Amino acid sequence: MDFTILGMGKTGHAAACYLMEQGHKVTVWDRNPDKIAALQENGISIYGQIVGVFRPESCQAIGEAVGESRYLLVFTTAIGHRPIAEALKGKNWKKKKSSWEKREPRFLRPLSKRRVRAI
Question: Is 118 inside any structural domain?
Answer without folding.
Answer: no
